[in-house]
Give the backbone structure.
Amino acid sequence: MDESKFYAYCLQGDVTAAFEYLRSIPYKSDKYQKLESRYVNRFFGGQPTYRFKTDDLWIRKVILAYYQYFTSVLTEKNVEDAETQLVQTLSQILHMNDLTASLDQIEEKLELIFEEKGFRFLGGVTAPFRGPYIWKTTKKMDFRVELPHETQDVTVYFLRDFIMLSWLHFATFGEKYAGGWAKADGLYYVDDGPKRKRIKLDSSEFQVSYLKHEAQHLSDYSRFPHLLPKDLEYRAKLVELIYEPRPFRLLKKFSYEAKNDPNFPHPYSSFVIMSRMAKLAFGIEGLQNLEKWGTLDTTQIQEWALDLYNMHTGQLEENGSDVIGVI
C-alpha cells in the first residue's frame, strides 16, 4: 500500500476515500489489516472506543464532543449539521442558556476554563474543519529567519504535553497533524506527540518546512493582512522550495496532497504549485509523473519557485494591501 496516498486522502479531510483505498488493497499485511480494523471501529462501526490523556471527566466530555464532530465531517456528513450538533453538546457541557451562541463564543468560554485547569486551549478552524489544540507546556526561543528579500525576527513557542491535536491527528490515529502555526505574537511549534520524533533544530524539516514556512506567514500577515489562507499557503510553500536542499522531497509531498478545491488551503496550494511548476518544467499544465520530477536540477527548481513567488508578490502589490487572493 502507498501510505503517502492513503494519508493524502486524510489530509484532504476525506476519511471515507482513505478507507476505500485501504480496502481496495487485495493482500494486506498484518499492519494494514490492523489499520483497516481501527478505521472500521472508529469511523464506520458505530461504537468507537477512545483513549483520553486526562482523568478530568469534564475535559473528557469536551474532547468527546469534538471527536463526534470529527467523525461526522470526516465521513462526508453535512458540516453545517455537525457544527450545529457540536454547539448544542458544548452548550450543555457549559450549562449555557444562550441558544444563539456561536462556536467562537463557546470556545472563548472553553479557553478560560481550560486555563483554570492548567491547559492552553486554541480553538477556531484548521481549514476546512473546526478542531482545537489543547496542551500543557510552553517554552520559547528567538530566531532570525532569512526570507526572499527580507529577514524576519521571530519568537517560537515550543508546545508539549498535548491532549488534543485537532482533526487531522484524529483522522490518522496520530500519524499526521499540524506541525505548528503562526499568530501575530510569534510561531507555535508542536514539539511532541505519540508518534512524533523530536526534529533537530538544524534540520531542513525544522529550518525550512517549519521555520521559513511560518515566518513567511508572519511577514504576509503584516504586508497583506486580508490575504486568504490558500494564498498564504501558496507563498509559504514556494518559500520552502526556494530554500529546501532536497526539493524533490517537497515536490513528492505536494504532489500526493494536491487537490483542486480552494476550500482546502493546504492541498489546493499544492495543486496550484505543482500545476505551475509542471508548466515551467515540462511545458504542460497539470500534475506530472513523480519520476519526471526526480530528473530536475535542484537549482532550477529553486529558481522557478522564486520566479513564482516574485510573480505572486507583484500581483499582490499591484492590487494593494486589501487584496484577499490571486490564486
Notes: Residues 114 and 120 are 6 Å apart (CA to CA). The longest strand covers residues 150-165. DSSP finds 13 helices and seven strands in the chain.
